[in-house]
Amino acid sequence: MIPCVITSVRLKPDTAAVAAVDLARTALVEEVDAADVGEHLGHLVEGERLVTHLFACTRPGYVGWRWSVTVARASRQKTVTVDEIVLIPGDEAIVAPAWVPYRERIQPGDLSPGDLLPVEDDDPRLVPTYSFGDDPLDTDAQAQIRTVAKDLGLGRVRTLSPEGHDLAAQRWYDGDQGPTAAIAQSAPDSCYSCGFLLRLNGSLSDTFGVCANGDANDDGRVVSLDHGCGAHSEVQLAKKHEPQPLPEHVVDTLSGDQLESF
């Protein structure tokens, strides 16, 4: 491997720190097994009189990783000292993927019986069903109001916000029950004209309905009016695809005596 010189800032490299390769290697093999240390890969100028030397890592299971030994020289001093020794991944190293919070990793269908998925108090998809005025409420006040609302039988505490409404509509329209689904692209007609479509009330009625065809893939699901499938109520088979009529029945009228005469 060809040694590299990486300069992260436009500083004049410190000659003594750059030349301290042997010092860096000696300090490294005091911390780790010498068999795990490979060739010197170059240096990185971190700052004024501050240089990091890189060594290949030959430890099994750490392909592409490298040892990083940072050395420094104090002002007006000739001696170079070791600051830090760490193992860092290179461009070809296998590392864990970027952390994704648990809440963001959950996908539709992941919940099992008994699993709970709480909704945050400030979830933008929901708003209070009743109005509290313009003053913000802290967590304790929200909890008290919910308790009172439940005791008074005021119904749902929160309902869909305009943002939550739009997100749901867009998700349904872009999903498998929307017009771009493969089954809809090859359908003979749309759900709008299907007798099995149950209409919705409210603002979503112009775009969505519920399929009530027990033979359809989308039975019991919200479908867009421009969705479709092969189970449309008015679909008809072409004559060449219709079942062929059975031939006339043949009735055997021969008796035993007639058979003997042949």
Description:
It holds the Pfam family DUF3027. This is DUF3027 domain-containing protein. The chain is α+β, with helices and mostly antiparallel strands and 262 residues long. The protein is built from 7 helices and 10 strands. The strands form 3 sheets. A 5-stranded mixed beta sheet has the order 1-2-3-4-5. The chain has a 3-stranded antiparallel beta sheet with strand order 8-9-10, with no helix packed on it.
Throw out a few tags for this protein:
21% helix, three-stranded antiparallel β-sheet, 262 residues, High-Potential Iron-Sulfur Protein, Chain A, alpha+beta, five-stranded mixed β-sheet, Nuclear Transport Factor 2, Chain: A, 7 helices, single chain
SSE topology sketch:
Elements: E1 4-7, H1 15-18, H2 21-31, E2 37-47, E3 50-57, E4 65-73, E5 80-89, H3 102-105, E6 126-128, H4 139-151, E7 158-160, H5 162-174, H6 182-185, E8 197-199, E9 208-211, E10 222-224, H7 256-261
Parallel strand pairs: 1-2
Antiparallel strand pairs: 2-3, 3-4, 4-5, 6-7, 8-9, 9-10
Pfam families: DUF3027
InterPro entries: DUF3027
Protein name: DUF3027 domain-containing protein
Structure at a glance:
The chain is of the alpha+beta class.
CATH class of the domain at 4-89: Alpha Beta
Q: Uncertain runs with pLDDT below 50, 5 residues or more? A: 5-9, 131-137
User: How far is the N terminus from the C terminus?
Assistant: 99 Å
* Series of H and E elements: EHHEEEEHEHEHHEEEH
Biggest sheet character: 5 strands, mixed
